[in-house]
Amino acid sequence: MNKILQSGTDGNITVTNDGATILKSVPLDNPAAKILVNISKVQDDEVGDGTTSVTVLAGELLREAERLVNAKTHPQVIIDGYRIASKAALQALESAAVDNSARLEAFRTDLFNIARTTLSSKVLSQDKDYFANLAVDAVLRLKGSTNLENIQVIKKVGGKLTDSYLDEGFILDKKIGTNCPKRVENAKILIGNTSMDTDKIKIFGAQVKVDSTGKLADLERAEREKMKAKVQRIKSHGINTFVNRQLIYNYPESLFAEAGITSIEHADFEGVERLALVTGGEIASTFENPDQVKLGECDLIEEIMIGEDTLIKFSGVKAGEACTIVLRGATSQMIDEAERSLHDALSVLSQTVKETRTVLGGGCAETLMAKAVDAEARKTAGKKAIATEAFAKALLQMPTILADNAGYDSAELVAKLRAKHYDGDNKAGLDMVKGEVGDMKELGVTESYKLKKQVVSSASEATEMLLRVDTILRAAPRQREDLETPEDEVAEEKPSKVGNPFAALGAEEDNNSEDEEEEGEEEEDASTLTPTAPAAKKKNKNKKKKKSKGVQQAASAQPPQQPVDDKTYTSNRQAKLARKKQRGLNEIDQALQELNIKYPEQQQTTQTSDTKQNSTISTLKAFLGIDPKQLDASAEMKKMFGAKVVSSATSMNSYGMGRQGRNQRAQAAFMKAMPRSHLAKYKPTWPPPTVAKLDGIGMRTLTLDEMKDWRVRHNLDDSFNLGGSGNSGDGNWWTFVHEPQYKSVQRQFLDATGSFDPNTLMALLQVYPYHVDTLNQVSEVFRMQGDNSNASDFTERVLFAIERAFPTNFNVLSGQCRLDFDRVENRSIWLALTRLINHLCMKGCWRTAFEYAKLMLSLDPLTDPYGALNWIDFLAVKAGQHDWIIRLAKEWPYNNTTNSGVVDCAILPGVAYAKALAVYYKEKPSKQLDETVRAFEEAISEHPIVLEQLRDNGLITLSQSRNEKLNQTIKANEEHYAKHAGAYHARNIALAKVYYAHSHPLYRDPNIPLQEIINRAIDNLEMTREEQVKKAEQNIIRKSLKVYKFPENVARHVIINNLTDAKQDIPQVFSEGDAFDPVRPSTSASGYNDAYFTGVRTRGGPSDSAGPAAGGIMSFIESLLRGEFNVNDLGRMDPNMRVVLEDQINELQQAGMGGMPGGFGEDEPSEESESEEESDTEQSDPSLVERMSRMIGLNRGNDNDDNVD
Fold first, then answer.
1. DSSP 176
2. Same domain for 114 and 84
3. Are residues 693 and 834 in the same domain?
4. How confident is the model over 959-1011, as pLDDT tens digits?
5. Does 449 reside within a domain?
6. Phi/psi of residue 83, each to 5°?
7. How many Å apart are CA 849 and CA 854, to the nearest integer?
8. How far apart are CA 500 and CA 658, in angstroms?
9. Higher pLDDT among residues 28 and 891, named by residue
């Protein structure tokens, strides 16, 4: 019976009953089973058939051996008995073999019968006579050679199986070039492997700068002349046909046509090799010495039609044994199985031509050998006789299984067969047509002697090898403390102090540091997880030395404990966690849990109704939830380098040393009053946090109408789950809201950026120290100057300021809160997160960077505007989050979506290769590479361009055959995309370069056997060029890639991260915009335009807003300088503006004794200067803030100071 094999990756199916094909496709973990698979492969390589027979016989021998071992028979005794039986069986087989090679007609009949017998169990069994004759004719043309390369097999869907035929020429599945002669007699053929596409200028990593189009034309002209000279050298060989393994572009093809030379392009490597073999030519790559090149010859080259396809036929080739078998059939699966069946027959026949002896089939040979083994057993003394008899029983299982598969009574038929043989009828076998015992010679059931001999030898040797094994030693996986604990919650091991390269910088660390207390808590918690933890614990966490000493004494005083096995420990650990969880439940939670236990059917009904709509939400929550402990880069650095080093480095922050003296003490008070911040912690070098209220910035959720508009802009229907909370998945989508006073500052910021003067930005920042876009812009200025420390500092201040605007129900760490990137107010947080990830990577804080990348992705996981996934595929592996990236590749809720605007992890090259690396690191402890190779196979098959990047940059080296396979077969899908979906092809190239730019350090690890993995992966890829093209075409149709547009998020990621190599593949339409908003989205719903500034006070007139007046102190000062306000008329000031000024002046007075917000502090005064200052207080001039407060009437009680200087 046939088996259907379905691929787990692309869903391709294979229908076959070929044992070797089935065993190669089934993943196995059992080492004994792998040995059986290996002997089937050897059988297939040596003979070409009998793969199922050798596996079945080995299995029966092992079954009999198991029975003897259970009966207390030593394995060595069984091995000795099997050796005796194997020798007797092979002698009996050899004595029964017949050689008819001296008589050609009889030998041809033997070959025909062997082919019929081989095809009897195949898909061609109904037409076995037809295909047996075809196979015999093809093999006899080889004239005793076993080189099947001379037999070309062409598969063409259409017609029926009996439409297949044998052609006495060589057929190449290609077309003759345009305008070239279609028929060539007495052909002189030059077979080349050379590039014929340099008539176009291609720039990969190089740049050509010209100052006029004329010079560009000169370059193209030079390339054309170079190609023309190359064609001339090819013509000098005196040929009339040129076959090239690579492409021939239009210009060289036209030159060949003008010279009357037939050109054939893109002949695959296998076709070129066979063509050179049958025509007697050689493959040439250079053409400077025509006398050293051997040309191929044939009588005629012409185009023929098979079905609806045009092919090229080479007749009268120099190697007369060459021929072509054209297979026809209704489906591709049918033709593929017919090819496998015919290949088995051809292989067996070619081996029979070499080893001409034959034996009878139908169970006759096995029964004959079993009879001889039984006779030998009666002569053998001791327990070896029992093993010898067991070997005979295993041999008799072969005709038994044959009868069972045919649906007959195997017990009766095999008993009759044995009786016939013991009566002296050595030609008796099973007639599966009539269901009885018959004469195999008369029925023509013949098999190859070499095949039967190989089956018995391989099966007995494999059985002997396995019988010598008494134990399987397998490397144990890393013991996990709790199987239910997520990977992120597993406590990380603290690095050894000996390995700290900075230990010499300080002998002791600050015992009062908060971070050391946290580390002490982690150590104490970790100690409770070990099965042999001491009973006594020290409570003083600050004094580490005393604590560790006390723990050691307690451990030494503790009596030795018995080791705890894994099962007991795991169950104890789970019980402990359950009790802890139960203690954390309040009474209501416990009551609900009890109701759920008592009435599970109601709970199940509710869960079933909500499963479909909540599956996407729950999956995203599981992927994108953030652990706040992992957002602290300083804590990660302390684990790597030690707290002493990090603390000293932090104290030497380069920008601004903070206020001194009294202001420093005020800042310490502010630090204690600061609310908890997750995205960035407040630093003392920043301006006082009281001015960080971000007046004018708020947040609100999007309305249903706005969400409908979002769906329309992104071409998503109502059934598409947007991954937010709520029943429809549209909830929890937010947007920032800018009030008029903030918009006024934003106008000043735009004016400052238009001046192209960084000093203007710094001046604006002194007044508004927490304006988001200004901070982002200043951060970029410092980065361009090479000051990454200050650039990172300003980026963190951006996130600190943004987080102060979050409402209480906007939990950015939950993984469920979304922001609308189409609104300009929201884009600043993506820019800040991207720059922060870059800075964290420079510091080597991989886990922290990974968490921030997850956070950026969670803000919009559908479109991923800044390409967070292009960071995650690198950071997940670097941070050791292997399970996470493997699950992402498989379980991302938007995988295989047909909407090209939604992120599909299944088609991202970086995710595929990151998954393969993660599989390697998980498989590394077992020292096995099978799963790793399989993962790289999938990645290379789908995204071969990444492999090209690794090869071209010297990280791997491919042999010529593997290079040919990569370029001709594996890359066929990308070539198809390039012709029919150019934007998608460009996107694949850009993403491959992006992945290499980020992840190439991962492949430079000398501990990874990268070369071995890649070689095995390429060798294991069994695909044809047609399969790759078909798969690409299906993808084009499914995703409508012919109208696909280059993704904006890829262009945005490349530009903001300044990935030079990938910029070449970005369309020119994506020009770099403003530094604070690069690559504005085409679906943008707002921008800094007139509509945004509606209601904002302009510099030339009053506000048209009905809300509070905008501008504050700066607008007031500007109005004074322009003369728009009369000091005598201040009492009639706009009330709204007066309120704004009063609030800001009060804040200034409370924050810094009249100093400007964000300004540089004065030096800390000495005691002498302080005393002088106190004595001269009454004589000092009023401060700027005091003067302004008097001007607007805040200090009306002081009537003596009404005049303004």
1. B
2. no
3. yes
4. 888 888 888 887 888 888 888 888 888 888 999 999 999 998 899 888 888 99
5. yes
6. -65, -45
7. 9
8. 32
9. 891
Would you give the distance in Å from CA 152 to the centre of its chain?
A: 37
Q: What is the CATH number of the domain that holds 189?
A: 3.50.7.10
Residue 754, C-beta contacts closer than 8 angstroms, at least 6 positions apart: none
**Number of domains into which the chain is organized:** 4
Helix (H, G, I), strand (E, B) or coil at 1106: coil
Q: For residue 48, how far is the Cα from the chain centroid? A: 37
Rounded to whole angstroms, the Cα distance separating 1141 from 568 reads 70
Neighbours of 959 (CB within 10 A): 10
Three-class secondary structure of residue 831 per DSSP = helix
For residue 627, the 8-state DSSP code is -
Please state the rounded mean pLDDT for residues 1139-1155.
Answer: 53
Pairwise CA distance, residues 365 & 429, whole Å: 8
| The pLDDT of residue 87 | 92
**Strand stretches in 797-876, DSSP E:** 818-819
Domain holding 835: CATH number? 1.25.40.10
Portion of the chain with pLDDT greater than 90, in percent: 11
Only one residue has tokens 């290996």, namely: 38
**Residue whose structure tokens are 């496709």:** 25
Residues 124 and 266 in one domain: no
Distance of alpha carbon 593 from alpha carbon 600, whole angstroms? 10
Same-domain check for residues 296 and 388:
no
Cβ–Cβ under 8 Å, residues 1065 and 990: yes
* Model pLDDT for residues 1082-1131, shown as the tens digit of each residue: 888 888 888 888 877 654 443 333 333 334 455 555 555 444 444 444 44
Torsion on CA atoms 845, 847, 853, 855, rounded to nearest 10:
-120
Q: Given a cut of 50, is residue 503 above it in pLDDT? A: no
Q: Do 1014 and 971 meet the contact criterion of CB atoms below 8 Å apart? A: no
Is 1151 exposed, middle or buried, given 0-12, 13-18 or 19+ CB atoms closer than 10 A?
A: buried
Nearest to 984 by CA among 1081, 1050, 1054: 1050
Averaged pLDDT, 737-749: 85
The DSSP secondary-structure symbol of 475 reads P
* pLDDT tens per residue, range 173-224: 888 988 898 899 999 999 988 888 764 445 445 566 777 778 878 888 888 8
| CA–CA–CA angle 715, 720, 723 (5° rounding) | 110
Q: Output the 3-class SS for 549-587.
A: HHHHHHHHHCCCCCCCCHHHHHHHHHHHHHHHHHHCCCH
Question: How does pLDDT run across 1019-1073, given as a tens digit for each residue?
Answer: 888 878 888 888 888 888 887 877 788 888 888 888 888 888 888 888 878 766 6
Beta-carbon contacts of 924 under 8 Å, excluding residues fewer than 6 positions away, are none
End of a domain among 866, 898, 918? 866
Q: How far apart are the first and last CA of the chain?
A: 106
1010-1021 tens-digit pLDDT: 998 999 888 888
Are 689 and 817 found together in one domain? Answer: yes
The single residue listed with the structure tokens 């690890």 is 1005
In this structure, are residues 431 and 420 in contact, taking their beta carbons and an 8 Å threshold?
no
Same structural domain, 414 and 456 = yes
Q: Give the range of the structural domain holding residue 244, as residue numbers without chain letter.
A: 170-200+220-319
3-state helix, strand, coil in the chain (%, to 5): 55, 10, 35
Which sequence positions are flagged as catalytic?
18, 51-52, 344
More confident residue, 789 or 1167: 789
**Boundary of a domain, candidates 259, 291, 319:** 319
Residues 153 and 177 in one domain: no
Strands 183-192 and 241-244: parallel
How high does pLDDT run on average in the chain? 76
CATH of the domain at 109: 3.30.260
Tens of pLDDT, residues 263-299: 998 877 667 888 888 888 888 888 888 888 899 999 8
What is the spatial distance between Cα 687 and Cα 277, in angstroms, rounded to a whole number?
A: 80
Q: Do 740 and 840 lie in a common domain?
A: yes
Coil/strand/helix, residue 22? helix
